[in-house]
């Protein structure tokens, strides 16, 4: 049986960041990825936004790790040559009934330590974005976008430079976890193997709960129930008049159909929220009607026939019964009783922004 210090399951942006941190800390590290390439799931099917930490409850993991990760990610992009753009974002109220929500967002962000938001009146917002229709806006100047694949390639490079390994086409079939033997995994693929590790980090994203269920020794009642929120995106076939990201006020399950820009300044809109039972990435062209209606609340002059189906992503939501959004879950032995095992559940937005901070948090919990 092969043995290593640390196994990370999942080669998305969070898994690669965690593996990099473990390898840089001097641990022999291997990443197991079921697919044939890195970042084929949620990490490459999102808006690529570097979030500021505006939306999340003060004191939550999402708020703390987003704010820490925001700073760390910009620094990492600068030192590693990862393409990014600090373009800024406007969160807009399109009628007076939305003003209390916008005010609550500003207060929430301030309570979390976000200190650079600016309240804009309608004329001030329209001076920056003449095509915009709103009654007020919050300006976040340090929100940006990042080349998510370039980021993952840089993380993989750091991992391998520190002696870590990436094993693609290596699905976890089963395993066991206990205090005496550590974690033992049976890995499938073209070269099946059995491997033991002192530490295991389950960073499998949409598959994290399924992976945990395959590991004997993890109490079933510690594995949360997963809900799948599909987000569809549409691209704009004409030039965008906007130079900022434009967000409506949030909706239940997401941040609303917003306008983002890629590094080529091309505009795309999404995601919406479509609750699904299975992971699928097709985009129904018929959903465009609801997109036109949503977008025209803040961009009334959106021309007919200019949206076309682009791509979709699926977000891992954790089922809950309380109010508000669910937090990240970074679950260690204090919950499941298995030393050396960390399960990462519900790592959705702002997981891309928070990836480096999540990695630091995981390493702290392993030491």
Descriptive report:
The protein is α/β, with parallel strands linked by helices. It has 2 domains: 162 residues, FAD/NAD(P)-binding domain, CATH 3.50.50; 146 residues, D-Amino Acid Oxidase, subunit A, domain 2 (D-Amino Acid Oxidase, Chain A, domain 2). Helix 1 packs parallel to helix 9. The protein is elongated. The two termini are 25 Å apart.
Q: How many structural domains? A: 2
> How many strands, what sense, and barrel or not for the largest sheet?
9 strands, mixed
The rough form would be described as elongated
Number of strands: 21
Q: From the coordinates shown, what is the CATH architecture of the largest domain?
A: 3-Layer(bba) Sandwich
Q: Output the number of helix runs.
A: 9
Distance between the amino and carboxyl termini: 25 Å
**Over all CA atoms, what is the radius of gyration?**
21 Å
Low-confidence stretches: none
Summarize the helix and strand pattern as letters: EHEEHEEHEHEEHEEEEHEEEEEEHEEHEH
Mean pLDDT: 94
Q: State the CATH class of the largest domain.
A: Alpha Beta
Could you tell me the CATH topology label of the largest domain. FAD/NAD(P)-binding domain
Question: CATH homologous superfamily of the largest domain - what is it?
Answer: FAD/NAD(P)-binding domain
Helix content class: 25-40%
Structural class: alpha/beta
Strand content: 25-35%
